[in-house]
Amino acid sequence: MEKWPVGVFASIDAGLGVKLEVVRDLGIKTIQLHTPHKESRTQEKANEFLKKLADYGITITAVFCGFEGESYASIKITAETVGLVPKATRAERIVETKEIADFAKLLGVAAVGLHIGFVPHDKNDPDYPGIVAMVREICEYLKRNGQRLHLETGQEPADTLLEFIADVGTDNLFINFDPANLILYGIGNPISDLKKVGHKVRSVHCKDGTATKGTPGVDWGREVPFGTGEVGAEQFLRTLKEVGYDGPLTIEREIPEEPERQKAEIGQALKLINDLKAKIWGS
Question: How far is it, in rounded angstroms, from Cα 182 to Cα 41?
């Protein structure tokens, strides 16, 4: 099996990922799929999509949850609206996460990923036990589907994330490691944190960013094309090899409002990753 098959974040319908035709045009063979709208999550749509995937020679490696009402306008608004933690939307999003998992099962996909939201960094926070119980419930549901849950890095320090996974206590809870998020949220260092959590990493985003010039953790950093920011692309890939990760490298470039630029920058990232793969693996 190929080490580090390159992928891209993609979409069936309106979403953060690129269209499948762009994936085909770039010659990319794996995708993480951004959650389709509810009306697209049917057996008929799954069959249509699987046929198109087969025609293009593309494999889905994970389905990522996205929810109506989420906003990344600021870190504060992200904390208030994103993922499963916000109380106002928690119950309905738990139900929808299970529905998304069932759709992923129709697609034959064993990994469901998401931004859970901002887990309290203090385990004495009164909301912490409920968040642990919620994720345990979802993991147990996914386990009955033969699936894993991948929590994306960004909102928690590495040690906090590992403690949270241990507190949930299921054997199908892992990490989707996004190095740029640690910079964008001002929460950690991609390389040292990857070394800490590497044994739990089961999927990866190749994304880059630069730190805020304002207040870390309050003001956003800036997302930039992979290989042009502060992640350090070669060091990141070498560290992935060091921690034993040889799964897909999924390019994420979230500028859907500029499709031509998005396609070009994904293409540049693809070339960089393939060059680094050859350099690192010696082939």
Answer: 31
Q: CATH assignment of 6-281, given 3.30.70.1670, 1.25.40.390, 3.90.226.10, 3.20.20.150?
A: 3.20.20.150
Domain boundaries, the chain: 6-281
Cα 4 to the center of its chain, rounded Å: 16
| Contact present, 220 and 228 (Cβ < 8 Å) | no
**236-273 tens-digit pLDDT:** 999 999 999 999 999 999 887 888 999 999 999 999 99
To which H or E segment does residue 203 belong?
strand 201-206
- Phi first, then psi, for residue 254 (nearest 5°) are -95, 75
Does pTM surpass 0.90?
Answer: yes
CA 24/CA 138 separation, integer angstroms? 33
Q: Which two tokens stand for residue 71?
A: 């906003």
